[in-house]
UniProtKB/TrEMBL annotation:
UniProt keyword annotation of Hydrolase present: yes
Similarity comment: family membership: Belongs to the glutaminase PdxT/SNO family.
CDD domains (alphabetical): GATase1_PB (cd01749)
One biological process term in Gene Ontology: pyridoxine metabolic process
One Pfam assignment: SNO
InterPro entries linked: Class_I_gatase-like, PdxT/SNO
Gene: pdxT
Protein name according to UniProt: Pyridoxal 5'-phosphate synthase subunit PdxT
Subunit structure: In the presence of PdxS, forms a dodecamer of heterodimers. Only shows activity in the heterodimer.
Superkingdom to which the source organism belongs: Bacteria
Keywords: Glutamine amidotransferase, Hydrolase, Lyase, Pyridoxal phosphate, Transferase
GO cellular component, one term: glutaminase complex
Function: Catalyzes the hydrolysis of glutamine to glutamate and ammonia as part of the biosynthesis of pyridoxal 5'-phosphate. The resulting ammonia molecule is channeled to the active site of PdxS.
Originating organism: Sporolactobacillus inulinus CASD
Length: 191
């Protein structure tokens, strides 16, 4: 059976992720309710607005369900999705899913720099990757067992911890399939 990856589709950049995953050889379905997680091999948490996405997850009963899913299966969080995965969020009392050993700062590149592109070297993925940053967070620190994959101006912007992958930028907004291919491969290897 082909690999099936779900994209959390409550809010944010969904359809671009779907296309990028399909182009990387995976079957893809949208996750809007608990039942949609059934039979999935991996899950993408897209960019958008983390506080809003959390509210919607609570409303549809998806918060606990996604946490349980993540206890076994690979998850890829991009931008707001990364914030949802972090164990610590600057200025916020509690984390959300709290599955990835990183400490993040939201809207970290300043209000003047709402969005920008940067040429990134991503370890094991691409020597030159155009990162699209939109009101992006960065990772202030990561636990020793977190593999830092990319930095920008000395800040961590992509990392992997076992079955969890995350990046502060929007890989679905570039035509470069490298990040999605890498995640599909992670999911294939975990099956
Ligand atoms: N600033 C958003 C947040 O804090 C994330 C932005 C994004 O996903 N592009 O949730």
């Amino acid at each position: 059976m082909a690999t099936r990856i779900g994209v959390l589709a409550l809010q944010g950049a969904v359809s671009e992720h779907v296309h990028a995953l399909e182009n990387s050889g995976s079957q893809v379905s949208l996750v809007k309710n608990i039942g949609d997680l059934e039979g999935l091999d991996g899950l993408v948490l897209p960019g958008g607005e983390s506080t809003m996405m959390r509210r919607m997850m609570d409303r549809y009963g998806l918060f606990e369900a996604v946490k349980q899913f993540a206890a076994e299966k690979p998850v890829f969080g991009t931008c707001a999705g990364l914030i949802l995965m972090a164990k610590q969020i600057e200025g916020r009392k509690g984390p959300h899913l709290s599955i990835l050993d990183i400490d993040v700062k939201r809207n970290a590149f300043g209000r003047q720099v709402e969005s920008f592109e940067a040429d990134l070297a991503i370890k094991g993925i691409s020597e030159h990757y155009t990162g699209v940053f939109i009101r992006a967070p960065y990772i202030k620190s990561a636990a020793a067992n977190v593999d830092v994959l990319a930095t920008y101006e000395d800040h961590i912007v992509a990392c992997r911890q076992g079955r969890f992958l995350c990046c502060a930028f929007h890989p679905e907004l570039t035509s470069d399939p490298a990040m999605h291919r890498y995640f599909v491969q992670m999911v294939n290897e975990s099956r």
